[in-house]
Amino acid sequence: MILSVKNLSVTYGTKKAVDNISFSIRPGEVIGLLGANGAGKSSRIAAVLGIETSNYEELIMLGKSPIIHRKEVFQEVGVQFQETNFQDKLTVREACEQWESLYKQTADVPLLLETFGLVRKESQLVKSLSGGERQRLAVLLALISNPKLVFLDELTTGLDTRARRMLWRQLLIMKENGLAIVLTSHYMDEVEALCNEILILKEGKTVFHGTIQEAIRTSGKATLEDAYLNFADEEDWV
């Protein structure tokens, strides 16, 4: 098991942002966290990563506690946050070198740059990249440690269709090679392309956990998008 979470909760004052959630992931699996803004997706990721204080029955990542054994665990875990901020005067090459210096072992960076279409951007300042290019760089940096597990928060927000499909294709190859992924997304086509299982969140609680086919069947709807809207009680808004 790559990641096991049991009965994890995050509380802000009197409000439970994450309410007793549980899920697990094995090598080569992708689990999608779905929900409206404010449903608890980012809070859940932050809690699992140990960035947010939480209570839990079990939190095991790569066989260890990500709280107690942080340095060791995060040598093999990558993270791409929804908003990744870079230093203003950093070039793409310098950003890669900076991230490489954090790890004992790294992936083939020239190959990653080629894979993500950034070879010709190496000497360019990160701040001058397009939004889509910065997003691709953020994902590249999350993969630079050749991780066994990666967290991707709103993976393709702001990307055009071609760039989105390119990212999916590369992640599917990595998934076949054993990479485990925790993904948050608002795009149902992305979820269908990548995910083995999904969790649908509402007000910090898990209202569905299972496969895409199970979500469609249980909801009585014809598509994943309609099933999601049904579970998340968002149908009245469409």
UniProtKB/TrEMBL annotation:
Keyword vocabulary terms for this entry: ATP-binding, Nucleotide-binding, Transport
Q: Which PROSITE patterns match?
A: ABC_TRANSPORTER_1 (PS00211), ABC_TRANSPORTER_2 (PS50893)
GO molecular function terms listed in the Swiss-Prot or TrEMBL record: ATP binding; ATP hydrolysis activity
Q: Which residues form the ABC transporter domain?
A: 3-228
Listed Pfam families: ABC_tran (PF00005)
Does the record carry ATP-binding as a key word? Answer: yes
The cross-references to SUPFAM superfamilies, in alphabetical order and at most eight, read: P-loop containing nucleoside triphosphate hydrolases (SSF52540)
Q: Which family does it belong to?
A: Belongs to the ABC transporter superfamily.
Put simply, this protein is called ABC transporter
